[in-house]
Amino acid sequence: MAEPMIRVENLHKHFGGFHAVDGASLSIEKGTITGLIGPNGAGKTTLFNVVAGVLPPTSGRVYMEGEDITGLPPHTLFHKGLLRTFQIAHEFSSLTVRENLMVVPPHQSGETLWNAWFRRGRVAAEERAIAKKADEVLEFLTIDHLADEKAGNLSGGQKKLLELGRTMMVDARVVFLDEVGAGVNRTLLNTIGDAIVRLNRERGYTFCMIEHDMDFIKRLCDPVIVMAEGKVLAEGSAEEIMSNEAVIEAYLGRGLRNKARAAKAEA
């Protein structure tokens, strides 16, 4: 049986006496778009931060295709193809959109003084290739008309697309998306969703995404994992999760429960 892309085993992350992640175990299978939902304070973002190397775990293990990656720093995981985006976009605001993408690929020839001085032809050729790739990424994301715009001038949704574009500038294998839909209008959210689906189907990206918009989750994600109080509460398809009484009662709210009951009554 093939190893999952990511396997988390009995993960704990404590901040003093507060157990943000409290024995969570889950798997993210290759080629899936896995949703991670739950109330604020459930431990979702902390779990992301531990898996992505931003925070060390208190205990427990994280594996990527069977390799123990527990506690590895983000730059090491980056080279292994594990990338993470943030709820608040982290763009270089004074650079253009194209330049924001061009700085992503590591080990560029122009980064060394020797090459910058004595191998200018090689540096220029590499920059042209990277610029071409950046333009292809922007076209894929349908924001190529913004290539020369300062990134700081983009809307919130456009910045989220730019963050997604950064993952396309390297050989990403698994991408953790933290509330990619937060503060994004419906039109841009659909564009982001289309890009995620295409990256998954056409380029084999595996995604795990934290999201509160259940319509967005239902459209994109299978399976969906529910966290609460630092633990995994439930896992299944979006339809199964949304009809799970424990999840509905405790985490999706009375309004959704009543809506679900009304729909059943109509049926």
TrEMBL record:
The keyword Nuclease does not apply. Keywords: ATP-binding, Nucleotide-binding, Transport. Signal peptide: none annotated. InterPro entries: AAA+_ATPase (IPR003593), ABC_AA/LPS_Transport (IPR051120), ABC_transporter-like_ATP-bd (IPR003439), ABC_transporter-like_CS (IPR017871), BCA_ABC_TP_C (IPR032823), P-loop_NTPase (IPR027417). Residues 6-254 form the ABC transporter domain. PROSITE patterns: ABC_TRANSPORTER_1, ABC_TRANSPORTER_2. GO terms for cellular component: plasma membrane. One of its GO terms (molecular function) is ATP binding. The keyword Transport applies. This is Branched-chain amino acid transport system ATP-binding protein. It comes from Meinhardsimonia xiamenensis.
